[in-house]
Design goal:
Elements lengths: L2 H19 L4 H4 L10 H13 L19 H12 L4 H21 L9 E3 L5 E3 L3 H17 L15 H18 L11 E6 L4 E6 L9 E3 L7 E6 H7 L11 E4 L1 H10 L4
Parallel strand pairs: 3-6
Antiparallel strand pairs: 1-2, 3-4, 4-5, 6-7
Helix pairs in contact: 1-5, 1-6, 1-7, 3-4, 3-5, 3-6, 6-7, 7-8
Length: about 270
């Protein structure tokens, strides 16, 4: 189960995000973020629109005629269509209105039968519902600490240092979703690549070729027979693993470096 994800969301929102949002000036709502095309206004509206889906779902805006099922990034933009024109106060009001219900809903997903119910999330893959909390630990950590706050973003605020509760559940989600999210690019994987993450969120992961009967790469824990090893802080992985920065600025390699380069270039968590 993903009860650490619930604890991570609680501390991320109650101690970090909620106080910051209530301290923003009108000028700060307009600051750019590391997510291209999004101001802080859009980053927060993205979070609140997704949170609202678990509290008071709204009809999804219709995609363009003839378009196929929207992916995760397309859905995010569809939900932002109306909210881009909201006042900053309206975005903050929505956050305040849905936060408690959102945390309660994800907490309920830790109980059976919901916990083990597998849901198709499109280009994010198929996952048991208990891991939804980890997904949002990742999403909200990334938007706050990578996109909004300096040095990646433009907002200057002091926040508590990242710790395992704030980041590790999100790292677990990144690797759980990576096979489906990178299905078109990780075809380069033909031998194991190990990724060692350090600092808060310390953990070891191995990207391996697909198991028999699957076309998706397989992600496991530590491996002693990896062709190459990439070492990075977990915090930096959230940035370069989502293509917000270049892994070359944060990763050290050992083993077959040319193979590692090909695999790391193919990683793009959404």
């Amino acid at each position: 189960m993903s009860r650490d994800g619930i604890a991570g969301l609680e501390i991320t929102h109650r101690s970090d995000i909620e106080p910051i949002l209530h301290s923003l000036s009108d000028e700060e709502w307009e600051l750019p973020t590391a997510c291209e095309g999004w101001r802080i206004h859009e980053a927060v509206a993205h979070m609140t629109s997704n949170m609202k889906l678990f509290v008071d779902p709204e009809p999804m805006p219709e995609p363009e005629p003839g378009a196929g099922p929207p992916g995760a990034e397309e859905i995010a933009e569809l939900l932002l269509t109306e909210r881009r024109g909201w006042t900053h106060g309206q975005v903050l009001d929505e956050y305040d209105a849905v936060l408690d219900g959102f945390l309660a809903a994800l907490g309920s997903f830790q109980d059976e039968p919901m916990a083990s119910t597998v849901t198709d999330l499109g280009d994010l893959g198929e996952h048991p519902m208990h891991i939804f909390s980890n997904m949002f630990v990742f999403d909200h950590y990334c938007h706050l600490r990578i996109d909004m706050l300096t040095p990646g973003g433009a907002l200057e605020r002091e926040v508590a240092p990242a710790d395992d509760l704030r980041i590790l559940p999100g790292i677990e989600w990144m690797f759980a979703g990576l096979p489906a999210m990178c299905s078109d690019t990780l075809t380069v994987v033909d031998k194991p690549l190990r990724i060692d993450l350090t600092g808060p969120g310390e953990s070891t992961w191995t990207i391996e070729p697909p198991v028999e009967g699957s076309t998706l790469v397989n992600v496991t824990g530590a491996s002693d027979d990896a062709a190459a090893v990439a070492t990075s802080s977990a915090h930096d992985f959230v940035s370069w693993g989502t293509k917000r920065s270049d892994w070359r600025d944060a990763v050290t390699l050992s083993g077959d470096s040319q193979y590692a380069i090909a695999v790391l270039d193919a990683i793009n968590v959404i």
